[in-house]
Amino acid sequence: MTKQQKKTVVSWLRDAHALEVGLEKNLSSLAEQLENYPELAQRFLQHREETAGHATLVSDELARLNEGPSGAKDTVSKLGTQVSSWSTTVTEDTVVRGLHSAYAAEQFEIATYTILRTAGEELNEPALIAMCETILRDEVQMADWIYDSIPDTVVQYLTEQIST
User: CA–CA distance from 129 to each of 132, 137, 144 (Å)?
Assistant: First the structure.
């Protein structure tokens, strides 16, 4: 890997780490707001643990490349997801908006790790490829789970509106 290629991959890894750190907080906030949806809350908390593991994997990959996460990017990401989670607090349809945002975030993560995996393949970096494939499995499973949960959740939410 050339010096410039390494710089690019490290930048992408730092972005991925910041994304994971920020999403961990957002998943906790969302789960706390879903008292009428215990299955959703439980799955978001489970994915929060997976997300923390993803941040560790990315950090380990950065260390393998003799680099570290970007504190500045992590801070900006945390602030951004806090603002995002606060904005969902004031709406009555938090569950629907939360699923919408969570699904979009999973798709963003899938794209992120697909890009990194492709870079690993192009640069012959087996450790990077393996890390991406591990994380991609979790992200695709979560995206599929959210997608499959949307219809029943919307119906439950609309039914609850009838009784209020």
Answer: 5, 12, 22
37-76 tens-digit pLDDT: 999 999 999 999 999 999 999 999 999 999 999 765 445 5
Is residue 149 within 8 A of residue 99, CB to CB? The reply is yes
Give buried/exposed letters for 119-152 (b at 16+ CB in 10 A, else e). bbeeeebeebbebbeebbebbeebbebbeebeee
- Which CATH number do you get for residue 122? 1.20.1260.10
Give the residue numbers spanning the domain of 117. 3-162
Total domain count, the chain: 1
Crossing angle of the two packed helices 94-122 and 71-89, in degrees rounded to 10: 160
